[in-house]
Amino acid sequence: MGNTTGKIRIAALISGGGSNLQAIIDACDRGTINAEVVVAGADRPSAKGLERCHRHGIPTFVVDYRSIVRCFEQDPAGMPLPPDADVQAVLARQTLLSDGMPMEKRLAFIATRILAEARLLAQLRSHAPDLLVLAGFMRTLTPYFIDRINTDAARPRIMNIHPALLPAFPGTDGYADTFRHGCKVGGCTVHFIDYGEDSGPIIGQRAFAITPEDTLDTVREKGLAQEWLLYPECIQLYAENRLRKRQMSHRLPDGRQSTRSVVDILPGPS
Ligand code: GRF
Asked: Quick one: which atom of ligand 1 is closest to the CA of 162?
């Protein structure tokens, strides 16, 4: 892992403003994290965060999910799937689509995701990243993509930042969900991704108080300020090879055995 300078190579995927990506780039530049951002990709050409990369001379690419879906709907035969893709197998392993969705729709959804993900993989591979960080990337990733990045099951390589204290409030609007629930504490979480929605093993969390004076806007501001600290901290733990995924089992009160993946943080050099 890493290159001759000992820095790990980070790839990032974004959809929006990219303030987390900026925090990561700045932490790399300051030397707070032993890493460099080698490429950033977006799922839409309008992602403002791409401009941040241009300012820092970081290569970028766009895989336009919307146009892939549009082309597939117009002419599925004109969009052949990659030879290594098995839509049925991916569908069987993913946990995001509800069983209630008609099979034809589910297959089409997975097919368009695989088409997009194959393009992501081609772009990412040419930059040989050690770690992929999702920084406000508003697309879920299928097992097709995840398995091709996580080639060693014991060493996941895709991190995400989520705007809530998971497992509370998974989904797309964690700060709003936290605020509307009347929570007195909000927070953010960095986790490795798995096949579910914001369900992967937790690496780090930061919390902040929500006071009666807060509005949704101030909650978002407080949260983002914590995200910009948390993400570089977690990336540095990865760069120091201090993150270990393991299975943790315990017996529930009803007698059932519960097992899930957790992340242990190894002590740093003293
Ligand atoms: C952040 O709140 C992050 O937690 C969520 O999307 C937002 C992205 O913000 N996943 P930015 O694009 O990094 O500014």
From this structure: 4
Q: Which of 43, 189, 227, 229 to mutate to test the pocket of ligand 1 (most atoms within 8 A of CB)?
A: 227
Pocket of ligand 1, beta carbon within 6 A: 14, 16-20, 49, 135-136, 161-163, 188, 224, 227
**CB neighbours of residue 18 within 10 Å:** 23
**Is residue 127 annotated as part of the catalytic site, yes or no?**
no
pTM for this prediction: 0.95
Query: Phi-psi category of 65—alpha, beta or left, where left has phi over 0 and alpha has psi -120 to 50?
Result: alpha
pLDDT in tens, the chain (270 residues): 445 568 999 999 999 999 999 999 999 999 999 999 999 999 999 999 999 999 999 999 999 999 999 999 999 999 999 999 999 999 998 888 888 889 899 999 999 999 999 999 999 999 999 999 999 999 999 999 999 999 998 899 999 999 999 999 999 999 999 999 999 999 999 999 999 999 999 999 999 999 999 999 999 999 999 999 999 999 999 999 999 999 999 999 999 999 999 999 999 987
Residues paired with residue 191 on neighbouring β-strands, in sequence order: 160, 202
Q: Which of 56, 127, 162, 250 is catalytic?
A: 162
- Whose alpha carbon is nearest atom 14 of ligand 1? 19
Is the distance from CB of 228 to CB of 251 less than 8 angstroms? no
State residue 140 phi and psi, 5-degree precision: -80, 150
Which residue, judged by its Cα, is nearest atom 1 of ligand 1? Answer: 136
Please state the φ and ψ torsions of residue 165, each to the nearest 5 degrees.
Answer: -85, 90
54 CA distance to ligand 1 middle (Å): 19
State phi, psi for 209 to the nearest 5 degrees: -80, 145
